[in-house]
Write a structure and sequence with these properties.
CATH topology of the largest domain: Nucleotidyltransferase, domain 5
CATH class of the largest domain: Alpha Beta
Number of strands: 21
Helix content: 25-40%
CATH architecture of the largest domain: 2-Layer Sandwich
Structural class: alpha+beta
Number of helices: 17
Strand content: 15-25%
Oligomer: single chain
Largest sheet: 6 strands, mixed
Number of domains: 2
Strand order of the largest sheet: 16-17-15-14-20-21
Distance between the termini: 62 Å
Radius of gyration: 22 Å
Length: 502
């Protein structure tokens, strides 16, 4: 008996085989190519996803793959995978991090209004979401648009290849800007307001619900027996929360990966009135979550290391930063290297070192980068607490969670104990597979398998220091916002001149 969880990420596919007692029996990864046809664009071929899944699953060969009781996927959100009536892919998938549809996002906000965005879909119109991508295709690739029979999210396309069934789940559908998050169903109003054709959105099934069974052709490619039940699966962040045991009020998951997220479940579809946080459906029935997103968390540290520290190991960089005082002796860093999402939905925002002096060393800069990333994530925690959420302790995952210094920073700046968990989305998907197949009787039974490390508690000596520096950090973006906009105008004008000269 075993459960197969598959995570379809942007950089790769991970397949994980789980024993129902919680033991990970085997894992295998497969890399995925990413295509950037133009600056700001980001695409992948769905056929590459499928080949990645085949490679990852076949890499588990010999590890009880003949005794799999259920399959489920987690996946990158928001991608527009367009199929015709025969199930053929019409164009490469436009991904979550593609920015080409920023004008369409502004058009949606102007046409629909913030009040209706709150009421109909509970989220702001952002270029990363699916609906603006559809408007872009209609405007620029009308013949493709006219042939669309179904819009699927990335993991739902893999489910289609596994079972022949077109379906999605509430956690992934929440990121389309077409989903009534509060009622866990497609919005009746939004597709009409945007002039989208009827019938292109697939049926919605809860994340652990079985949508179909592994078809013979797909089974042959994967090296598995046919007929294995396949659950609907969930969005990557929702599945990571499951893997961390974060499924109810009073719990939270802080992820320090390439991007950074703070996710907190709620028993009701609570919203930030200013839409600074996302309100999405959880992969748990009758449960939602609030989430803040910092686009360049680990990405800021990677950029800093690659640009200023060469090949020095991350652990060495953090060890030196830990020797500097809290607040990096007056040096602050804004981690907006790719624009920002929470709490400032601003693609024009940029990274800033503020307060540099001749006194500062590379160790000061490193500490400032880490503190700036964590201040940005703490902004989401502040909004959550203002909305009445309790964050008595937070579970911590991602690459940044591996170093004790960053764990302590997170505890001090967010003002809550941190406990590290291994919360990969593929593990959460395996939990969903087990619930759908009846191996686990409930979500609660599955997440009892989750183990946490010892808590890192806030240091009373640094909490007040960070409170003062965080207040300064929060004043910098409003002061610089007009300059970010002016700089973006200069960049756009220079880009046009470069094109004209070419």
């Amino acid at each position: 008996m075993a459960l197969l969880g598959i995570d379809l990420g942007t950089s790769g596919v991970k397949a994980l085989l789980l024993d129902p007692d919680g033991t990970v029996l085997a894992e295998h990864d497969a890399a995925l190519p990413l295509h950037v046809p133009r600056p700001g664009w980001s695409e992948q071929e769905p056929s590459d996803w499928w080949q990645g899944v085949v490679t990852a699953v076949r890499g588990l060969a010999g590890r009880r793959s003949d005794a799999i009781d259920g399959i489920a996927l987690s996946g990158q959100m928001h991608g527009a995978t367009l199929l015709d009536a025969d199930g053929a892919v019409l164009r490469p998938c436009i991904l979550w991090n593609d920015q080409r549809s920023a004008p369409q996002s502004a058009e949606i906000t102007a046409r629909v209004g913030l009040a209706n965005l709150r009421r109909w879909v509970a989220n702001p119109a952002l270029a990363g979401f699916t609906a603006p991508k559809l408007l872009w295709v209609r405007e620029h690739e009308l013949e493709v648009f006219r042939r669309i029979a179904t819009v699927l999210l990335p993991k739902d396309y893999i489910n289609f290849r596994l079972t022949g069934i077109r379906a999605t789940d509430p956690s992934d559908a929440s990121g389309t800007l077409l989903f009534d998050v509060a009622h866990r169903r497609w919005s009746a109003e939004m597709p009409v307001a945007l002039g989208l054709p009827e019938g292109i959105l697939p049926p919605v099934r809860e994340s652990s619900e079985i949508i179909g069974h592994l078809a013979a052709e797909a089974a042959a490619e994967l090296g598995l027996p046919s007929g294995i039940p396949v659950a609907a699966g969930g969005a990557d962040n929702a599945c990571a929360a499951l893997a961390g045991g974060v499924v109810a009020d009073g719990q939270a998951l802080l992820s320090l990966g390439t991007s950074g997220t703070l996710l907190a479940p709620t028993a009701d579809p609570r919203q930030d009135p200013d839409l600074r946080l996302h309100t999405f459906c959880h992969a748990v029935p009758a449960t939602w979550y609030l989430m803040g997103v910092v686009l360049s968390a680990g990405a800021s540290l990677s950029w800093y290391r690659d640009t200023m520290a060469g090949d020095e190991p991350y652990a060495s960089l953090l060890d030196h930063a830990a020797l500097m005082p809290a607040g990096a002796e007056g040096l602050l860093f804004l981690p907006y290297l790719s624009g920002e999402r929470t709490p400032h939905a601003d693609p024009d925002a940029r990274g800033v070192f503020f307060g540099l002096s001749l006194h500062h060393t590379r160790a000061h800069l490193t500490r400032a980068v880490l503190e700036g990333i964590t201040f940005a994530l703490a902004d989401a925690a502040t909004i959550m607490r203002d909305l009445g959420l309790r964050l008595p302790s937070i579970r911590l995952t991602g690459g940044g969670a591996r170093h004790a210094f960053w764990q302590q920073l997170a505890a001090d700046i967010l003002g809550a104990p941190m406990a590290r968990v291994s919360a990969g989305p593929a593990l959460g998907a395996a939990f969903l597979a087990g619930i759908g197949a009846g191996v686990f009787g409930s979500i609660e039974e599955a997440v009892r398998l989750v183990r946490t490390a010892e808590e890192t508690r806030p240091n009373p000596e640094t909490i007040d220091v960070y409170r003062r520096y965080h207040a300064m950090f929060d004043r910098l973006y409003p002061a610089l916002r007009p300059k970010f906009e002016e700089l973006a105008g200069l960049e756009a004008a220079e880009s046009k001149q470069s094109v004209a000269r070419a």
